[in-house]
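Q: What does the predicted 3D structure of O-antigen ligase-related domain-containing protein look like?
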Amino acid sequence: MSILQETTFKNLDERIIYFTIILTYPLYLIGGLYLVGPILAWILLYRSLVIIFNVKIKIHHLSIAWIVSILLIEVVVVIGSLNTGHSILMTIKSTIGWAKGWALIGIFIFIGSILPIRYYIFQRAIINILWQSLLISPFLIVVAFLNFPTLLYISPLKFFGGGGEQFFKVWLYWNDSNTGLPRWQLFAPWSPALAFYALLALSIILPRPSDKTKYVALFSAIVLVLLSESRAGIVILLMLIFIYAISYFFDVIFILFMMLICCLLFGVFLNEIVEGVSGLVNYINSMRSKSSMIRQTLNDIGLYRWYSESFWFGHGNVERGPHIVQFMPIGSHHTFIGLLFIKGIIGLLLYVIPLVVTTLYLFIKSFIRRDYLSGFFVILIFFMYSFTENIEILSYLMWPGWLFIGMTLRACFYDCHFNEIDFEDNGQVFVVPK
């Protein structure tokens, strides 16, 4: 199998990315994942700036838009903290939180557009971690049904993290309080985050030429989604499969025609569709009613306090909710509401505008080259999970997805396939038609 073949690197950046990904499990076991993500981002940003200052390089305008938006979010954080009356120490703490959270989103998109990292190396790393996960999963399933301890230990590295001990816990599995059945999260901080990562990985490897290695990796990604038992993960997986099947079997003209028909039908049967979707949402929520109630209560608290207390720039800092939501941070289960509460309407727009524009851009580009469909899938996954997860706090783990968006934007800029992009020793891009 090609997964066992020796990997040939052309530069240090490829080595850093490759080994950081394939060493995910060792890093998880020592509690280092939460620390490595931000460190990696800032080191690679420095290396990207070195290339920019030494080589005349072209950068996609959306990559620049993302990094500017993320920098402006930091300005909003400072204004929100000062408006709310927080001390300088709390404002500095908020800035550190931004540097290891929101900053990573813009940084990884930016460096994905600049650093000389070949898609060939990147997808091999993703496939490697999927294969590792597939090999580990049977063992974790067995120990769950043999009633082994759920939590192994909490890494002492939590002292350096500051994000909560949840990111430094090492689990074999955990038992769902609603169903009593085991759920798995492997190297993720919680089960839905595992499905999130698996869907990103599945999308990233789609442009790879079809072979047994790819098929096994795709199977592994699907297994991880199922093991997580994440409702959102399963729904998004089915949606991606449907979109991929449509794009595979039908041409662009037919798809556009069907989209037009669907829009017309949506307008005619709007009330019936809304009632049907509402019924489906209620059914899905009833599967874990306690979890859904906590999410909804957190969202209600976040919206009320944002609108009544700090509309424009937010509160500037994370605050824990009351006992009824098990003291979970307000906005922690919804990126958009979390943005409103902490960074106000200005902060929300600084994330939503580049997110929506990039989603639409890659959607249109996916009609031109099927390679770009994978980039559209990745940004669509981030968009969908913004309604159920805190994208910022998971950026330390989901950074390969943001990096891949940057790589996709670079491929779009040069109007070529991922595997046609290569680099000179100084980082200059050149396209090799294949």
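A (community wiki): The structure tokens above were generated from the sequence. Residues 2-259+289-431 form one domain. The chain has one domain: 2-259+289-431.
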